[in-house]
Specification:
CATH superfamily of the largest domain: Periplasmic binding protein-like II
Shape: globular
Number of strands: 11
Strand content: 15-25%
């Protein structure tokens, strides 16, 4: 049965907004958290919407809520309404003197904490009415589910309605504390790495294959400390636990670590900037994406090991 929308509910964007979040999150609790509502309110609003539609929109399963065919059909229409609302907001904002509003930027921990955060003052000074939110995670972000406005990633993201382009690269290096090198010696080449110990990610928690940096240098390394946090790995290496792979920007100025140079061996990753096409023309999004693109372009020598 196809969902029907009577006159009273056709214009109830708030109901559709809640429905969209539940569909994207796959559960009432997760949706409630994202919306800033309590679980019972979200559950009641979904039930009311299903009653108004005259059909069930979700199947309740052990793993969460799954969209039924009527729910999938409604999702398509709701996303069109959402896109038009976002486009209208962007059009109105374009007529303002200054870009304004909140922009949520998502990225991995190391890039967000050690590279981007210390470089945001020029953006804030130029656009004081733009409020920034920086979210970091070891897991990919889904812009189609509105988890963020902008995603800065080390892989090209996929998803419906995404605009994405490569804006630069960065290089990684192998690092160790002076104390570790004194105890174990300095590797002269890749062939020497088999006798050393390492600090690395927790393998079964790796959600992005592109962070398997160490695998490009040594096969089956002996890892003595694992963490899903790059910053935790860095501090473990500073304490002398083992060798660690770090972006050069993360170790820049860190006097407690020494880079281990292995001839001409190079490990690099791309930097991708992506945004949902519905937000691409919003003034607040445009100024932030331009700032990020210009920043990475200007910093390419630094990111690749130059001065």
């Amino acid at each position: 049965m196809s969902p029907r929308i009577d006159d009273r509910h056709a214009s109830n964007w708030d109901d559709l907004r809640i429905f969209l979040e539940v569909a994207r999150q796959g559960g009432l609790s997760q949706a409630a958290k994202h919306l800033g509502l309590d679980h019972s309110t979200v559950s009641r609003r979904v039930a009311q919407l299903e009653l108004a539609m005259g059909t069930k929109l979700f199947d309740r399963t052990r793993s969460g809520l799954q969209l039924r065919p009527p729910g999938r059909l409604l999702l398509q229409h709701a996303e069109v309404i959402e896109s038009r609302a976002l486009a209208a907001t962007a059009s109105i904002s374009a007529g303002q003197d200054q870009p304004r509003g909140t922009v949520r930027i998502a990225m991995m921990e190391g890039i967000g904490s050690l590279y981007l955060s210390p470089r945001l003052l020029p953006l804030q000074s130029a656009y004081p009415l733009v409020e920034l939110e920086l979210v970091t995670s070891a897991h990919p972000f889904n812009l189609s589910r509105r988890e963020a406005d902008i995603f800065l990633s080390i892989f090209r993201p996929s998803g419906r309605g995404l605009w994405a382009r490569k804006i630069g690269e960065f290089e990684l290096g192998l690092y160790a504390s002076p104390a570790y090198l004194k105890r174990h010696g300095t590797p002269a080449g890749v062939e020497d790495l088999q006798r050393h110990v390492f600090v690395d990610y927790i393998d079964d928690l790796v959600a992005i294959d592109a962070v398997r940096y160490l695998a490009e240098l040594v096969e089956s390394p002996r890892v003595v400390f694992h963490s899903n946090s790059m910053i935790a790995q860095q501090h473990a290496a500073i304490a002398g636990l083992g060798l660690v792979m770090l972006p050069l920007f993360a170790a820049a100025g860190e006097r407690r670590l020494r880079r281990v140079v292995l001839g001409k061996v190079s490990v690099r990753r791309d930097l991708w900037l992506s945004v949902h096409r519905d937000l691409q023309d919003s003034p607040r999004i445009r100024v932030v994406t331009k700032f990020l693109s210009d920043l990475v372009a200007a910093d390419q020598d630094f990111l690749l090991g130059g001065k």
